[in-house]
Specification:
single chain, 192 residues, mainly beta, four-stranded mixed sheet, 44% strand, rod-shaped
Length: 192
């Protein structure tokens, strides 16, 4: 018998998944589950897993070694809170931010798997010279800023797409805030 193996769809949960398996014979009849044992492999993380069936001793079928791959889909992306990066007006400087600190915390044993930060960054930082880079492996965002003017407060955002092997893409938003330099008090005149 060349069996047909059907596997129910499943989504990453951090558990070793054992979705329902249906085995059919050559003409489409469902083979009783007492006729075989089911073995799963590579069935914890999102991606391609395998189910293998082996006939039980004394059964009515010879099914040994029949296998089928199935997909474990990525879980929905957890909600991420916005981060912030403060720059100083009138100061040409390079600022950096560890994007991994902005990823939502997962409850063990859940894990992101492999994490990749998109190097293409979406910004709306308005006037001033801004060069933004992201290290795709470490997730360090680097912002070279030279903002003129004295307006303080949030003036733009940076968004970075984070891809992981177990979750759908996560969009991180970083609010960019401007502040003015602190003036030293020695210049304050004591006129009274």
């Amino acid at each position: 018998v060349t069996p047909t193996i059907e596997v129910e769809p499943c989504t990453y949960t951090s558990d070793a998944l054992e979705p329902t398996v249906t085995v059919k014979d050559d003409i489409g009849n469902i083979i009783d589950q007492k006729e075989y044992e089911i073995f799963y492999s590579n069935n914890t993380n999102a991606g391609i897993a395998t189910v293998t069936i082996k006939d039980v001793e004394g059964g009515n079928y010879v099914l040994s070694g029949a296998s089928k791959t199935f997909e474990i889909t990525k879980a929905a992306a957890p909600a991420a809170e916005a981060g912030s990066l403060t720059i100083t007006n009138g100061l040409h400087k390079t600022y950096s931010l560890d994007l991994s600190a902005l990823l939502p915390k997962l409850t063990a044993p859940c894990n992101y798997g492999t994490i990749t930060y998109d190097r293409k960054v979406d910004t709306n930082l308005g006037v001033g010279s801004f060069i933004t880079l992201v290290n795709g492996k470490t997730g360090e965002l680097t912002l070279e800023a030279n903002r003129s003017g004295t307006d303080e407060g949030q003036f733009g955002t940076i968004t970075v797409t984070v891809s992981t092997s177990n979750y759908q893409d996560i969009i991180l938003t970083i609010n960019v805030i401007a502040k003015n330099r602190i003036r030293s008090e020695e210049h304050t005149s004591e006129l009274q």
